[in-house]
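Researcher: Predict the fold of Zinc ribbon domain-containing protein.
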Amino acid sequence: MSTDEDRVRLARQLGRLPVRELVDVLRRVLPQHAEDGNGMRTTLVLATATVYEQEPAGIDVTLVAWPDRDHYDDGPGPEQGLWEDGRCARCDVEVSSNAKRAYCPVCNTRCTLT
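Model: Structure tokens for Zinc ribbon domain-containing protein follow.
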């Protein structure tokens, strides 16, 4: 078990990573916390939330797709923000990524983003 001090240190390290590297680290960790049971599967995912303050106010939540490391020479994809958008063809969730070629964090289907 880690101490609070260990977790604070880790949080600081993660906070210093650029977005593409943070996404790459979290894609290795979050899926490990999936739970199966009672005919359903629960998976931890990374998401973005865009809050619109003008009328009509609202929130858009988009899941972060994991860059296709094979396509990007075993790397985390381009150095840019989560600017690529699309939908998973299999489970129809809205996804965004720093890469045009990525995988859905829910069903692991390859997504082509624009």
